[in-house]
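Teaching assistant's notes for section 4

Start the section by putting this record on the projector. Ask students to predict, before seeing the second block, whether tRNA adenosine deaminase-associated protein will look compact or extended. Collect guesses on the board.
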Amino acid sequence: MAYFTAVLSPEGSGDDRDWRSVDIDLEAGSPDELGDALRGAVDDDDVPVLAVLEREDEWFALVRTDGGVDVRVFVSDAVAAADSAYAPLFAELPPAAAVVGEDGAEGGAGASEPDEDEVPATRPEPPVVEDVWAGDPELLTDLGCPAEVLVRLAGSGADPSAATVEIGEVLGFADVLESLR
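Reveal the predicted structure now:
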């Protein structure tokens, strides 16, 4: 499966904001290492820099830095991203949600199974899978993309490239993103 990466930075503000691509190779590493690379890619430390990462058919991630501000990250599927080349970037994010069974106990590989002699009186409900996104869903709010959009796209199971294009349409960088593909 292939990765797609793009680094973008806005010029101007508000409705007059134009996005441009920034030529930088994204190396897998910690958020601080990636933040240093993003900061070094633009001349103005106060300008936000946004890295868009996609793993074909699996997940998308957004990494943002603004000058001296800490790097902020959002990933649509922390479980899948943990097995990727970019795993160090997501290692410090809160853990992904667990699968929760009907009794409220966490399930998964270590969950206990009922004894063979036990026959359930009713058919058990399928487990509820909580959201698996992680990070800061508000990292684009001040630019015009509400947290609800990121969370909805992460939970919808949308194709990662379609999700990032939708985010790009909200913020105005969809054309630039598509030109980089």
